[in-house]
Amino acid sequence: MASTPLLASSLPLAAAPMAGGPSTVALAGAVAGAGAFPFLAGGYRPVEALAEQISQARRLGADFGVNLFVPSRAPVDGAALQAYARELAPEAQAYGLDLSVQPGHDDDGWQAKLDLLVSDPVPVVSFTFGLPEDDVVRRLRAAGTTVLVTVTTAREAAAAAEAGADGLVVQGPRAGGHSATFDPSRTIGGQATADVVQEVRGATALPVIGTGGVGGGEDVRAILAAGAQMVAVGTLLLRADEAGTPETYRRALVDPAFTRTIVTRAFSGRPARSLRNGFAQRHPHAPSAYPAVNRLTLPLRAAAARAGDMQRISLWAGTGWRGARDESAADAVARLAAAL
Q1: What is the pTM of this model?
Q2: Which Pfam families match (predicted)?
Q3: Domains of the chain as residue ranges with CATH
Q4: What is the spatial order of strands in the sheet that 261-264 belongs to?
């Protein structure tokens, strides 16, 4: 284990970035106040809104990180995408929608967000879904920012080290939400995060933050024992008072009708772990086409959320989702800290 801490916090714990609403400045503040390291989620957020969140986070008086999605460079099979749109037509008709494939490429405001983080640096920036260009890493490090790359295999870890990353976020396949794999067409298994951390530690000397499938203190101890400096938790904070998790999503997390998680491309075109609901089960063969599929299903997911329909929204959750509670984020952190 590296002797110098990778992130500034009194506990070896971090709040993973959760895009789409759950990660809020209030959550970051509660986590930081409890001694863990907070991340803001830059994914899906307009650059102006991200800038405002960063401004608010600076008032917390603690270091924090910002996570960005690396844009996909993979070509999209247009015919497969159109076929999927036709497959989803009956789902859309339930809400009077006509889903259509959106033209153009969506890079989630990549360049504008990079320019913001270089001109107005934050302590830490992490990347998910791939490697940023080498000059991106250099520019951020030159601005005084610690750069982390999220990886899922030893091979990805070696590539991140070669690109100049300061450290790694090692995501195990039991993590909730999108897999950070560089290759979204590959099959995501069920390996324990501690095992992936050990493999990565054998491939590079970079310091590691382990994440994925954490249901309680026992999982944290296992990941740290495998060689991680810190453990990041996401799903465990979805029900926190300060999280921006939508109400329908919160209800699903405690609904006994949901008994397991599965990895699905149905909602976004990228493998992601979700509670097994009707939509995920009905569409097991969605094309590997992120973010095109994500844009295609967005109107349906939004309508379903407004209607309280848990069977047609993405219910991202790691395998430890039963460990999430209705409580303050500070209490959630304290529970994990007590088990160390």
Answers
A1: 0.96
A2: NMO
A3: 1-71+107-235+327-340 (3.20.20.70)
A4: 177-178, 272-275, 261-264
